[in-house]
Amino acid sequence: MDNPIVFFDIAVNSEPLDHVSFKLSADKSIYGEKFEDEYFILKHTGPGILPMADAGPNTNSSQFFICSAKIEWLDGKHVVFGKVKEGVDTVEAMERFGSRNGKTGKKITIADCRQI
């Protein structure tokens, strides 16, 4: 099976910003409300990496985040399942709306998404 490619159209305050496409891992997956860590082969090597958000070991769900830097201290803690294929500049633009307290200065949303 080929690794799927998906995209998000990003909007800022309901105005289109640009899109980001991701190449996902197509390996075996476990479905459910929470599921076990599948593997820690892929590492947090730099901007554009997609890890699962979790609340500790074996608590993966549908939440994820996009790395904006190398964060190797998460290796072995968060399962990496993909990376940005196109649109790192859009990810960087979204990051500029952030702040140290974790809140964004403008509302950033995914306006549309689909598998390519």
Automatic annotation (TrEMBL):
Residues annotated as transmembrane: none
Annotated Gene Ontology cellular component terms: cytoplasm
GO molecular function: cyclosporin A binding; peptidyl-prolyl cis-trans isomerase activity
PPIase cyclophilin-type domain span: 25-115
Keywords per UniProt: Isomerase, Rotamase
Reactions catalysed: [protein]-peptidylproline (omega=180) = [protein]-peptidylproline (omega=0)
Family: Belongs to the cyclophilin-type PPIase family.
Function noted in UniProt: PPIases accelerate the folding of proteins. It catalyzes the cis-trans isomerization of proline imidic peptide bonds in oligopeptides.
Designated name of the protein: Peptidyl-prolyl cis-trans isomerase
Organism: Muntiacus muntjak
